[in-house]
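Still learning folds. Look over my entry:

…
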Amino acid sequence: MSRRTRLVGTALLTALAVAYLVWKVDLGRTIDVLLDSEPAWVLLAILIMVGTAPLMALRWKWLLAAQGVHERLPWLTRSYLVSYTAGQVLPTSIGGDASRIVESSRRHPGRTADLTAIVLLERGLGGTATLLLGAVGFVLAVGHYDVSAYVWIEGVFVLGTLVLLFLFFARSARPLLARLQPLLRPLRVDRALRAFYEGVHHYRGHPRLLAGTFVYTTALQAVRVLAIWASAKAVGIDLGPRIYYVMGPLFFLVMLVPFTLNGIALREAFFVSFLGSVGVPADQAFAAGFLFFVVVVVMALPGAVILLYEGVRGGARSPRVEHG
């Protein structure tokens, strides 16, 4: 897909999301809701999201070690915080992932394919754990909320996840992938993609690590969902955490896809659509989505401070870490 096509598609989707919000939301009422919001709930949402950064960095450290790449947890946490900052100016979570890949590749020359595979495997584990939470959420919602329309969205993600798991971890998929290699050779990406595939496939030999990391990731995602609940509580949406274990996983999955720059309008449109399906007024739902955006922006501030500090001091001067 050409850059121009992507830009046009992004602009069109952003315009559609904005049009939907203009149709549904009374801006004056939304401002009143935001002015009456409870700061304590917003602070709780911020603490949840920022506080999980070192825990996510620990997961990254485990996966790196399995490939013989050894890094200190403080630097990995720093890189995670900087990736949140990058995610504000690059497309959604993908921008943050690219930031981590570039920074870690500079510290470990010649390991770019492995490092890319690790970051994307980490993202895949997060997505799979999120799907599991979504399935649990739907079970919890049965008989309490009518959100059946969103089952189809989750179904698409489930199907895509199963296909990717088969391609990367099933030995029977190798002959199929081998047939595709000649088609990729003219594009000069066959070697890079093969190295990436081998980097992910390497973890097939570490089932205990994958299982443990998956359980750990599921617990982390369950905690992060509560940040959405806290953002909604801040604007007076009086719903228990149960519904957010339906909404949160779907929201995180949708935001993984770079439909719009930094999820602008799409995030708020999702809040309005989903919460509207359970009877929440559009103005309150929009306010909750906007507050969650504020939480994400605050998450980016530590990374911005780190980059500013390193810029003043001439950049990060951490020594390159040797491989084990």
In short: The CA atoms of residues 21 and 269 lie 6 Å apart. The radius of gyration is 21 Å.
